[in-house]
Amino acid sequence: MVPRRPVAPQRAARHGVTGLRLLGLRLLLFHGILEDFPLRRIVPVMSLPPLRSSEHLHDVRYEIRGALARRAEQLEREGHEIVKLNIGNPGAFGFRMPGSMRVAVVENLHQADPYSHQKGIFAAREAVVMQQQSRGVMDVTADDVFIGNGVSELIMLAMRALLNPGDEVLVPSPDYPLWTASVVIHGAKAVHYPCRPERGFVPDPVEVERLVTPRTRALVVINPNNPTGAVYPRKTLAALADIARQRHLVFCADEIYDEMLYDGAEFVPAASLDDSLLCLSFGGLSKVYRACGLRVGWLVFSGEREHARDYIQAVELLASLRLCSNVPGQYAVQTALGGYQSIVDLTKPGGRLYATRAAVLDAVRRSKYLSVVPPQGAMYAFVKVHADRLSGGVEAFDDQAFALDLLERKHVLVAPGSSFNVPYRDHFRVTLLPDAEQMADVFGRIESLLDEYAAR
């Protein structure tokens, strides 16, 4: 073994290496970590100019995993147990995807090593086609289906292929904030149409139509709705589809919660309403099938498509640039859509989601400060705080400050209502994923905090 050269103090000093730094270098040399390190590269630390983020992100917000979530992680590292109700993540609350889906993934791992087609494997796309046909959407083939890394990726691809700076997209308020982000990140403007609490969070088509301008490119509906749990009536959806058809808008239907329904609510597929307009339907495995981690979603183009060939080809180009979506997860799609729909067991009376929803409604009914529009679908409740019943009144209440206080003092993490692009600051969203007993405990903590506010 060739002996290592010692580091001469005078040589080190010439390069600004003295004292403890020299000792550190000797230790590194001794342990073989640092061979003949070129000391000429050791220079005093220089201050660098700030590395700024892209201007495209300056108006992008996603508070669901923002500052409050980061603070919750800090509290957990300090040893506190946090009840996280900010994200609809079924696996984190003990839900599991159907076993047949897991088997389908495992049984096909041997053929999941290569990239798939940019649109996804044929079996998955064909299964989506059959689902659409069972809903009365007869004009689609596997070529009209894109499989993506969750609906989130496909929303971004669809907006990136469509929008230019200055364009406008009609987005519900409240919304799932990714929709607003996917618009503004491409230099376009999200124009929020109101879904008012007094209307059960169902939009008024007359109000929506008033917001259409020559720059409007698309109309987005989220049904069943996140964050409110509203399920839109057929008449409302048909009126919105009619606006899209008459004003030549792309009709985007986020239907990730399509089968998650309560108390007899009816889900109406947007694509089944009017085959003379271009409809983009988004669905996936994350929620109904409790398989968030597989990252599998789909986008279906239906209706009038001939005039949109350039746009659809642009979506395919973007899909090609990312090569393909998660291949092992795609093998679960056919089994999921063709098998027993076990979500019904969770949402019907006696099911776990139904029981948790009932616990929320009961806790709100008994509260001195809260009210809620009963969710008819999805896995959330959008709860209102009646700040006029608290010390300081409406002017003193802020949903962000309340959510932080609830986290710090009661160790419950919720999503402030203003995170969902609403003009008011007196709501918060909780997921319905904990069991009923834990949810009752959570609302007990919320009531306790509001009691303290009222007593100030």
Describe this structure in words.
- With 456 residues, this protein is α/β, with parallel strands linked by helices.
- The chain folds into three domains: 10-41, no CATH class; 60-93 and 345-454, Alpha-Beta Complex (Aspartate Aminotransferase, domain 1), CATH 3.90.1150; 99-340, Aspartate Aminotransferase, domain 2, CATH 3.40.640.10.
- Helices cover 37% and strands 13% of the residues.
- It contains 17 helices and 13 strands.
- The protein has helices spanning 9-14, 19-30, 67-77, 99-107, 122-134, 150-162, 177-184, 205-210, 234-246, 309-321, 327-330, 333-338, 343-347, 352-366, 393-396, 399-410, 436-454; strands at 83-84, 145-148, 168-173, 189-194, 216-222, 250-254, 279-284, 297-302, 370-372, 380-385, 412-413, 415-416, 427-431.
- The protein has a seven-stranded mixed beta sheet, with helices on both faces. A four-stranded antiparallel beta sheet has the order 9-10-13-12. Strands 1-11 form a two-stranded parallel ribbon.
- α7 (177-184) links the parallel β3 (168-173) and β4 (189-194).
- α6 runs parallel beside α7, α6 (150-162) packs across α10 (309-321) and α14 runs parallel beside α17 (436-454).
- It is globular and about 65 Å long.
- The N and C termini lie far apart (76 Å).
- Residues 11-35 have low confidence and may be disordered.
